[in-house]
């Protein structure tokens, strides 16, 4: 199990449990930061590393489930591994439906926790890679002219230069020039590449629309 450049945040109001979890996680190479409450965690400046949150359900102030909902609405969410000494089926179902990676009832085996943490960090690593890729695509797309933005979905839809020229009332030569610029700016080597890029940009734009504007 590799803990290369990753961090685990532990939020549990039991000092003995915090010490035990810190020792276990550090023994396999993870960096660990622990907190007594969810509010204490929010005061921390999080490092820019893949990570996850090991979160107790019962906490002073904001409960673990309440904090899960709050964190899920934030711009910087984290995968969560829940731990609890007072769990029940409805509680675990609610946590998992809200996106928890694991829900463990104390006492749990060390390997169960380590497996859950490993899965959670890998999820965060993939989410970060996807976010970086989308940011790069947005930056490339921002260099396109309004006309090139018009042409992109038509090319991605498989239309030929002649069809695009007719649709936009342009000459085929002009369409060909714009099409080449679109390919270059988006760094698409083939039309198949361009289709994938266009799909990702469209999905990203749709995901960032306010809920009341979606169909």
TrEMBL record:
Q: Which InterPro entries does the entry link to?
A: CheY-like_superfamily, Sig_transdc_resp-reg_C-effctor, Sig_transdc_resp-reg_receiver, Tscrpt_reg_LuxR_C, WH-like_DNA-bd_sf
**Gene Ontology terms describing biological process:** phosphorelay signal transduction system; regulation of DNA-templated transcription
Q: Response regulatory domain: from which residue to which, for each copy?
A: 7-121
What keywords are assigned to this protein?
DNA-binding, Phosphoprotein, Transcription, Transcription regulation, Two-component regulatory system
CDD domains, per the entry: LuxR_C_like (cd06170), REC_FixJ (cd17537)
Question: What would you give as a GO molecular function for this chain, any one?
Answer: DNA binding
Q: Where's the HTH luxR-type domain? A: 137-202
Q: What's the name of the protein?
A: DNA-binding response regulator
One Pfam family from the record: GerE
What is the residue range of the signal peptide feature? none
Q: Which residues carry this modification: 4-aspartylphosphate?
A: 56
